[in-house]
Amino acid sequence: MLNSYTSCHHSIIILSTDHVFLLCTIKKSRPLLQIQKQSHTDISAMKTCCIFFLYLAIILQHCFYFSVSSSSPLLLPLSHSLSTSKHSSSPLHLLKSSSSRSSERFRRHHQKRQQHQLPLPLSSGSDYLLSLSVGSSSSVSLYLDTGSDLVWFPCRPFTCILCESKPPPSLTSLSSSASTVPCSSPSCSAAHSSLPSSDLCAISNCPLDLIETGECNNSSYPCPPFYYAYGDGSLVARLYSDSLSLPPLSVANFTFGCAHTTLAEPIGVAGFGRGRLSIPAQLASFAPHLGNSFSYCLVSHSFDSERVRRPSPLILGRFVEEKEKRVGADDDDDHKEKVEFVYTELLDNPKHPYFYSVSLQGISVGKRNIPAPAMLRRVDRNGGGGVVVDSGTTFTMLPAKFYNSVVEEFDSRVGRVHERADRVEPSSGMSPCYYLNQTVRIPALVLHFAGNGSSVTLPRRNYFYEFMDGEDGKQEKRKVGCLMLMNGGDESELRGGTGAILGNYQQQGFEVVYDLLNRRVGFAKRKCASYWDTLNQS
């Protein structure tokens, strides 16, 4: 078995000790008696050869571990779909499409009870893209999604049904080095919502005697195609394995889905959830340092495509010290950015184990703290409740009663100063909205997570979006501002599913770290637009 790892400073091929003796040639055609009659010199030479390669493999594995554990974290750029879109849209159109997409994704979590049938980004305009390549195929851009654990992309030949209004797909072809995943593989079972491998191998026409002895582990009995459902679409895909390239990293035997037919889903997904098929989980088996922690810093954009021309950093292998160093562009401490991470514990979800669920204790609007309902404080034994930290949903979704309490307090403070923009609300999908004058008074918004001092104060632009209405010339131009939180529905409708979602719009301007080793999620305010350059200089 060959495992390879490549970094900026290392390019090492690893030989598994299980296979090292293959390097010491023994002619199988020679009778055993002849082998026994070999000269003492030949036998000694053979032993020396085998011992040499055994030690070589051990040394190389040690070097591999050392190079990974002592190297810098892997830095990758995330692009925003706004920066790649060729079509300009009005703020109202972007708000409406993003709010509809967020609502559809959230509700689909509760409509579909089967594991892995999750809604994902439905169209361009609000999500972050990661470029990677598999085997010798060209690079493909996939949506980064912490709410699912599968990596899949559209493969040639490709048919997308009802995709006329969708962005063009980023197609790739399977390389000659790609191989099907056997039906007996745990990855196959994971893709089929934990269906037993015996059932999957029966579907693959593996003979009963081989199923009983566990020998359906070759390409003759591949993992059957699997179905995957989304907010307004679906796909059927097959599992393959090949080398994954995330320059400068290369990982052998990476498992992914290849889809030739989808419904309204032209763009693939890079799953970063907690399941075994996700990128972090698969990296952990090759380089624990890279797979046990990752973070991203999403550039604040306010739906302005010019603001997302700079990449948002994705950092694999990010471990934060308790005393975080100051970071900045110069050596003057007064001009450096002091970074303090706020952590909250990850909650286990027996029904949706791939979710990054956390406990929300309340939300403060101004000086008033509004306690969160019990369903947001914990996850019950049926997998219901908690707040999912999700990179694939745009806006934060809250249960109706809790959402209404937050809006009522917000409106009591803003509504007495600014006129309500009722006409804008239906066309934007957001509420409440206000017409703004020169003096804008907006109360602070703080998220209180479980844990001592685990409160996150959101920048105003993360929860209150300001734009100019009337750009189409049909109405008088007036400045408008809208609260960027959404009603997720009644608690009775949310039972058995996610209680709330923390969307990527509210995560802008923070480095969000997923510390899988210590089972926690952390938040730290960052200047994400310049953070990419800072990391590259360090």
UniProtKB/TrEMBL annotation:
GO terms for molecular function: aspartic-type endopeptidase activity. GO terms for biological process: proteolysis. It comes from Brassica campestris. The keyword Mitochondrion does not apply. Pfam families: TAXi_C, TAXi_N. The chain crosses the membrane at residues 49-68. The active site is at residues 145, 390. PANTHER family: ASPARTYL PROTEASES, OS04G0535200 PROTEIN. Keywords: Aspartyl protease, Glycoprotein, Hydrolase, Membrane, Protease, Transmembrane, Transmembrane helix. This is Peptidase A1 domain-containing protein. The keyword Transmembrane helix applies. Residues 128-524 form the Peptidase A1 domain. Belongs to the peptidase A1 family. It comes from the Eukaryota. Gene3D superfamilies: Acid Proteases (2.40.70.10).
